[in-house]
Amino acid sequence: MTSDIQDTWLLWQLSDSAFPTGGFAHSAGLEAAWQQGEARNGSELVAFVEASLRQLGHASLPFFTAAHDQPEKLDLLDHHCDAFLTSHVANRASRLQGRAFLSSVERIFPGGKIKLAACGHFAPIFGVVMRSLGLRRLQAGRLFFFFHLRGLMAAAIRLGIVGPMEGQSLQHRLGPVAEKILAQCESLPVSEAAQTAPVLEIWQGTQDRLYSRLFQS
Prior knowledge:
It is a single chain. Helix 4 packs antiparallel against helix 6 (122-132) and helix 5 runs parallel beside helix 6 (122-132). It is built from nine helices and no strands. The longest helix has 28 residues, at 42-69. It is an all-alpha fold.
């Protein structure tokens, strides 16, 4: 097969919900926001997701792009990411998802083993893994946003905020929003990483104190 065809099949496999990314155990603060009455319907969900996508672009994407461009600096980027994620819930979720994703990739795809960084945060791990699989940065960046958007919609459906059909409709509607944010943020260096939605961080930080919960974050 040609390289482009191989990349297409690889993208389909990675984006399949059956691929064990570890992301479906997390709601990125949506569950806490819902329990506090801040994401009760489709319109409020859209506002939450748009804010979360912007935060992904400004806070996590720089670590992904830097790791994809310079995989040899994974340890340094991993430590920077650990210092950046001050919320214990967000930090824990990033570590768990990064380690789960790397473990899945190493067991599924042939090739060299990637040395796990000390913390194993998802964004830099994802960048290095995508580079090792031969995916171009733009392709991998779109997949990075797709994982986040799909995970939020899956969480919203499981929480009963929207139904499956409405969730898919909203995901289709928000795809161009994710693409625009990716274009705006893909050149941001790690030194300019920033939290753009502190309220989302506060909601996510309360996850451990919820009386009952479906998700880890």
